[in-house]
Structure formats: C-alpha cells, structure tokens
UniProtKB/TrEMBL annotation, chain A:
Domain of life: Bacteria
Any single Pfam family the record assigns to this protein: PadR
Sequence ranges assigned to domain Transcription regulator PadR N-terminal in this UniProt record: 14-83
Protein name: Transcription regulator PadR N-terminal domain-containing protein
Automatic annotation (TrEMBL), chain B:
Superkingdom of source: Bacteria
Domain DUF4097: 46-228
Lineage: Bacteria, Bacillati, Actinomycetota, Actinomycetes, Micromonosporales
InterPro entries for the chain: Toastrack_DUF4097
Official protein name in the record: DUF4097 family beta strand repeat-containing protein
Length: 214, 278
C-alpha cells in the first residue's frame, strides 16, 4: 500500500493535507490512515523527518503549541502544490483505485493485521523472557525459602529494630555476665549467697523473656 | 423496504443512508469496511441457496435465509453439501457511524473502521478487527480473535483459541479464553478496567510506563513475572501472585491464569515531538 508513495509523493500528499489548514503530526498520521481505510498508517518516525526536511526546504513552518508542533504551509509550499497539481490528481486517482476494490482491501487488511500480530507476539514474548526468573535461579530461591519457611519474594533479613535499645539491653546483659564471672573468680560470696543470686538472675531472665515476647 | 435476492456474484451499490448493519452468514467470509464513501454490498461468491439483502429505513441486512428448523450442526453441513449451498464471500461497505451486528457460523470475519461499536460472533473461525471504536464485543467458540487499534469498550471471548490485542487505546478491556493464550498491548495510560482470564494458556500484558493502574496478577500453577519493580511477584513456593499500584492507581488491571504464566511488561512512552530531531 505504501508503494503508492514512492518518489517524493508522500511529501506532496503531506503538502496537500497541510494545504487544508495547520495540523500537528499526529493528526496528519490519522488523516493518512483514514484515507487508506486504516491500511496505511505511517509511523511518527516516517512523518517527522519528512516534515523536518520540508521545513528546511522552506515549504512548511511550525509553531509549538501545548508541547506539540503544529505545522503550517508557507507560500513556497502553496506554489509547489499548485505547480504539481497534475501529479497530485494522478496520485489521488491511484489512491482511490487502491482502495476501490474493497474485497482486496479487506484481504490486505487481514494480512496486515496478522503480520503485526505475529510481530507483536514475538516482541512481547522476548520481553517476557527478560523479566521471567531463570529456572535454575528459581529453584535456588525455592530451596532457600523452604529452608527458611518463608514466602517467595518475602524480605530475607529480619526487620531491624531501632538500634539504640538493642545495644543498651545487650550491654546490660554483658555487664551482668562480666560481674558474675568476676565475683566467682575472686571467690567472693558464700555458697548460700551464690544460690540466692542464681535464683535472682533466673527470675529476671523470666521477666525479660516475657517482656520481649519469647 | 427494498429486498434483493442474490444468486450470483455481483456488486450492489446502495443509495440511502445506512445506520445499522445486520449480517448472518451460515458459512464463508465476511468483510465489513467502514468508509466515508457510499455504502455497497459486494458478493464475490455465493452458494446455491443465495443470499437475501434488504434495506429498510437505514437498516441494512444481509443473510442466509435458513429456517431455524433446518439448522443442523456444522458437521452435518459439511457432510450434506453445506459448502456448495451456503458458502459466501461478502464485502460490505458502510459509513463509519453504522452500528454493526455480525454473525458467521463457520468461516472468517473481518471488520474495520467502524466507530460506533460492533458485535461479532463466529462459531468456528477467526475474527479480525482493525480500527474499531465504541462498544465492541467479539465472541468466537473455536477460533482466534485478533484486534488492532481498537478503542472504547472492548470484550473478547473465545473457548478454544487465542486472543491478541495490539495498539489498543481502549479504556475498558475484557478478554476471556478457556484454552488459549492472551496477548494484550495497551496504549492508553488512562485505561479504567482491564480484566484478562484464561484457564490453560499464557497471559502477556503490556501497559504504558506511566499507567495509573491497580494491578492484581494471579497464576494458580504458573508463574507471575513483572517488569515493574513496585509490583513484585510473591507466593508460597514460587511466584504465584503480584499486587501493587502503578502511578495514581485509578484504573484496575486484573489477570488470572490457571495453568499458564502471567507476565506484566512495560511499554515505553512515545513522545511524538521527539521524532522532530530525527
């Protein structure tokens, strides 16, 4: 279908569309698509470079409106349009002929859709392979999660508590252990006192255990 | 009301507006094209039973006249010369504004350029849609549904067949299949409701990077994967589900697969003005 637009004829047709009033690039694409009953929809990558070249040749100008560029035909553009009127008429006739046989249009449409669908599936499948976890790695994750008894994707490290309090408690416990060891090593205290101290520590341990939710 | 009986290939130009189209074919190929030009019916091939075309107050109807009592299962038609009697190849041009209701029992159906919605039913065969808008409902029993550039409100259902949706700006999509894959490439960051279901098939869905969606992906015995870091797959023994929010989370995307993988992919946003420098 795009064969209709060989040898600079797309440029001529774009001039013709802009001759009807200023338009932005996206509108031009839609107009072309409508003219070809949806069979030919040029991409932005086709249209914008053409427009840029036409602008360099002084046939169109653009103004930025709301983040989009609106293109407008210049006097030089109108002159070229008038000069190539015969060529334009021939092009219009050709486009008309290419969409006149609706049966052929529908068949080409079906082929076009099937082709695009195939490409799309291939593209998405390739993209999906990129995000899917490889099987070997997945197996390792499964094993690790089984050993941990956690869920897939769950955070592996326990949530850190506020660090200050933890160290305070630990320091207190270490201090207690150090003092007890020191006292025993120096042979201080009677066996009775030591027994009372052990019972005391036991009861404190119980309370602490209850407090920390063990 | 004007009625024509068509027994041989011919082109039938129609004068007068067409606002509704109703087609019922037992067997064959149906193409419907929305155009700005005049409406017409082109019959390229027709079986011995002929076709009836009628135009009544803007309602164009093209059908095989089969009494319900004569309806036999499709297999019966093949055995008893159904193809010779009913096979038809029909291309219909209607204004883009016409609302269409299309049925083909056995064969293929293509529709393009209809802006006011369409209902397409095929029992055994494929459905191809291009550039449709409005309320679109496509149902196939055994066959695939392929759609490109469809906007509006889209429902696609098939029992054994694949569903593919590309370049779609639809704001509501419902795709359901029993045994077949679903591939969806969505273009509309403001989509409101997307539901995809399959029993035994894979789901591939791509949404724009800047989409505003609440995402809910589930795979019963397959795996879930996601290209968005904020939607991380979770589950007991494998990636079985993923939930999360993209952007403002105004729309809803849910995908359920029983025995197949579910993959959520990101579509880079295209900025049209970027092409200017090329």
């Amino acid at each position: 279908m795009s064969a209709v637009f060989s040898h600079g004829r797309l440029r001529l047709y774009l001039l013709k569309l802009l001759g009807g009033g200023p338009r932005h690039g996206y509108e031009l694409i839609r107009l072309l698509e409508n003219r070809f009953l949806g069979l030919y929809a040029p991409s932005a990558g086709t249209i914008y470079p053409r427009l840029a070249r036409m602008e360099a040749d002084g046939l169109v100008t653009h103004t930025a409106a709301g983040g989009r560029k609106v293109y407008e035909i210049t006097e030089a553009g109108r002159a070229e349009l008038a000069q190539r009127a015969d060529e334009l008429a021939a092009l219009e006739a050709e486009i008309h002929a290419s969409v006149a046989d609706l049966g052929a249009v529908a068949e080409e449409m079906e082929r076009g859709v099937q082709g695009s669908v195939r490409d799309l599936k291939k593209e998405l499948r390739a993209a999906a392979r990129q995000v899917q976890t490889p099987r070997t790695q997945e197996w390792k994750q499964w094993r690790a999660e089984w050993q941990r008894g956690t869920q897939y994707g769950a955070p592996t490290t326990p949530p850190p508590a506020s660090p200050g309090t933890v160290t305070d408690v630990e320091r207190a416990a270490e201090l207690l252990v150090a003092e007890v060891r020191d006292a025993v090593a120096r042979g201080r205290g009677t066996p009775d006192n030591l027994r009372v101290a052990a019972a005391l520590i036991d009861s404190v341990r119980d309370q602490v255990r209850r407090l920390l939710g063990e | 009301m004007t009625t024509w009986t068509i027994n041989e290939p011919r082109r039938l130009p129609l004068d007068g507006a067409v606002s509704r189209l109703d087609v019922w074919l037992a067997m064959g190929r149906l193409n419907v094209v929305g155009t700005d030009g005049p409406p017409s019916v082109t019959v390229k091939a027709v079986g011995s039973k002929g076709l009836t075309v009628s135009l009544d107050d803007g309602e164009l109807s093209v059908r095989h006249d089969i009494a319900p009592s004569k309806l036999r299962p499709i297999v019966g038609w093949w055995f008893f010369g159904g193809k010779r009697r009913y096979n038809a190849e029909v291309t219909i041009a209607v204004p883009t504004t016409a609302a269409a209701s299309l049925t083909v029992i056995s064969g293929s159906l293509t529709a393009s350029g209809l802006r006011n919605g369409a209902k397409a039913d095929v029992v055994s065969g494929s459905i191809t849609l291009l550039g449709l808008d409005g309320q679109v409902h496509a149902t196939a029993v055994s066959g695939s549904v392929e759609a490109l550039g469809v906007g509006g409100d889209l429902i696609m259902e098939t029992v054994s067949g694949e569903i593919v949706l590309g370049d779609s700006s639809a704001h509501r999509v419902k795709a359901r299949t029993i045994s077949g894959a679903v591939t969806c490439d969505l273009d509309n960051p403001k989509a409101r409701d997307i539901r995809i279901d399959t029993t035994s098939g894979e789901i591939l869905v791509r949404v724009p990077e800047d989409a505003d969606l609440h995402v809910d992906l589930n795979a019963t015995s397959g795996r879930v994967s996601s290209a968005f870091p904020q939607i991380a797959p979770m589950g007991m023994h494998g990636a079985r589900y993923a939930r999360g929010r993209l952007g403002a989370g105004t729309g809803q995307l849910s995908a359920y697969a029983i025995s197949g993988n579910v993959s959520l992919l990101a579509r880079p946003t295209e900025d049209f003005s970027e092409g200017d420098q090329a």
